[in-house]
Amino acid sequence: MLSVEQTLEQILRRVNPLEAADIPIMEASGRIAAESVLARCDLPPFDNSAMDGYAVHSTDVRNASATQPVLLRIAGRTAAGQVAGATLKPGECLRIFTGAPMPQGADAVVMQEDTETDGDWVRVLDGVRPWENIRFRGEDLKIGAEVARAGQRLTPQQLGLMAAAGVETVSVRRKPRLALLSTGNELVHAGQHLGPGQIYESNRVALAALLQGAGAETTLLPMVRDRLEDLTALFAEILPQFDGLVSTGGVSVGELDFVKEAFQSAGGQLESWRVAMKPGKPFAFGHAGRTLFFGLPGNPVSAFVTASLLVLPSVQRWQGATHLGLRRVSAQLKERIVNKGDRRHYVRVALGADGQVRPTGPQASHLLVTLAQADGLLDVPPHGTFEAGAWTEVLLLP
Ligand code: AMP
Ligand code: MG
Questions:
Q1: DSSP character for 62?
Q2: Given Cys at both, which of 91, 97, 324, 378 links 313, Cβ 3.0 to 4.6 Å?
């Protein structure tokens, strides 16, 4: 049986980044930059006022105070979007507003709150240091500086920076197209009557949300009964149309578990079918031409955890991401966790307001409530114990 790392390596060997195309940055949130993106201008592009007030020669008003105000003549006025024409002479000031370019000659801005106006004159009631209240050209970012690295996921805050730096479009790789398949005679859609022995199908919904969140385009296939011929026909039809096919259920060793056989009958090559982890031991991986096949177990927690650890990194790699997998944070354990088994256990944990983590409750792989309550997974080694108070690394669920 392969380890999680070996399985992931085997999978990622087959994932090649998809084609790239330019898209407007307005549509690029959550996408992965395919190339490094450079600033088109300095930021700020020019020296400008940080305040509403008066642009001055700082030497004129260095010693100004409420008891010894300095009187300056208002030579003009400039607002954001305007450019002051004349050079400021000593003894003069320029009415200026936040974001307006600094006039030639001025080397500070007195804030409005420290002044009193009197017709064409202003009384300055407080001193300023040279360069006070000025925002300097290029202090935030220089023209040509990198505003996004190739392989970086574009966050809203980063897109704001890119827009400010004059970037209009960004090259991103296409979203991988994934088909989601659920198999099981017992499965029915939500909204339908639940007959004897039936359960509502839930894996496709959870997996679609998980994988879309990582940038995949997902297509839900109709539910399939546990019949080898039906499964084989569907595999043969679907495999050529997608970058990946993710199935759940029917991948174990039961008499009605036909997924592996159907995949192979449809021309697929199975590379592995078990992984040493809990939940999620039955996990099949293979390829059919350039389409990858992920055969996930049916138990909802097993399906979700294997998808998070083994499918999600592929979705990221297809888009050219440099960082693969769930984000990790370190957190202190609130209670002791023991893994008595001989497979590593991904324990569902919740992150408290105090920053500590604790298991969400019973961990059997059919229990959805403790999965829904989880903020992350804690990777506990076989026969391992984590003591209360220990610092551990948590894999954050989306
Ligand atoms: P299997 O892997 O097909 O043996 O299924 C294992 C368990 O997961 C069984 O209890 C199934 O009823 C359940 N199961 C399988 N597929 C789904 C699904 N799509 N949604 C919810 N439960 C499922
Ligand atoms: Mg089944």
A1: T
A2: 324
Q: Residue 395 in contact with residue 379, Cβ under 8 Å? A: yes
Q: How many residues does the chain have?
A: 398
Q: Enter the tokens of residue 338.
A: 């023991």
Question: What are 92's two structure tokens?
Answer: 């003069």
Residue 147 counted as domain residue: yes
Helix (H) or strand (E) holding 117: strand 115-118
394 with 329: CB under 8 angstroms? yes
Phi, psi of 261, deg, nearest 5: -65, -45
CA quadruple 112, 115, 116, 119: dihedral positive or negative?
Answer: negative
**For position 82, what pLDDT does the model report?**
96
Residues of the chain scoring pLDDT < 50 = none
Does 223 share its domain with 293? yes
Range of the domain at 224: 4-17+174-318
* CA–CA dist 246, 218 (Å, integer): 10
276 phi and psi, to 5 degrees? Answer: -80, 75
Rounded (to 5) percent helix, strand, coil in the chain: 20, 35, 45
Q: Is the CB of 249 within 6 Å of ligand 1?
A: yes
- Using a 10 angstrom Cβ sphere, with 0-12 exposed, 13-18 middle and 19 or more buried, the burial of residue 296 is buried
State the pLDDT at residue 256: 92
298 lines ligand 1 (CB under 6 A): yes
State residue 250's pLDDT score: 96
Residue 266 alpha carbon to ligand 2 centre in Å: 20
CATH number at residue 240: 3.40.980.10
d(CA 96, CA 111): 9
Q: Which amino acid is at 20?
A: A
The pLDDT, as a whole number, for residue 388 is: 97
DSSP letters of 151-163?
T-B--HHHHHHHH
Q: Is the CB of 186 under 6 A from ligand 1?
A: yes
Distance 290 CA to ligand 1 centre (A): 28
Q: Looking at the domain assignment, is residue 323 inside a domain?
A: no
* Domain end point (choices 284, 318, 352): 318
My answer on whether 280 and 336 are in the same domain is no
